[in-house]
Amino acid sequence: MEKSFPEENLKLVHLDVGGMTCEGCEKAIVSSICKLEGIEEASASHTAEEAIIKFDSTRTSIEAISQAIADAGYSVEGEKKQEQHQ
Fold first, then answer.
1. How confident is the model at residue 4 (pLDDT cuts 50, 70, 90)?
2. How far apart, in whole angstroms, are the C-alpha atoms of residue 61 and residue 54?
3. pTM assigned to the model
4. How far apart (Å, rounded) are the C-alpha atoms in residues 69 and 28?
5. Considering only CA atoms, which of 17, 15, 20 is closest in space to residue 80?
6. Residue 44 CB neighbour total at 10 angstroms
7. Of all helices (H) and strands (E), which one includes residue 51?
8. What residue numbers bound the domain in which 80 lies?
9. What's the CATH code of the domain at 46?
């Protein structure tokens, strides 16, 4: 899934996610995140226990992304890194 949003609005965030055990978990998290408006890219890794999301910061927030992960049945343990996408 790839959409195109203005580069100046894009942020990239790495979130620590708890509760993933398999590729099915990864797909559930990505599916939940991608339902939000403003998501350009999303991936999840159960082995790295993280989700990486590129999003338009004028259309959604880290809080909304974290809630989408929680709604899918997983927990956000913290934020590894956030950066302005370049």
1. confident
2. 11
3. 0.88
4. 9
5. 15
6. 26
7. strand 50-56
8. 7-84
9. 3.30.70.100
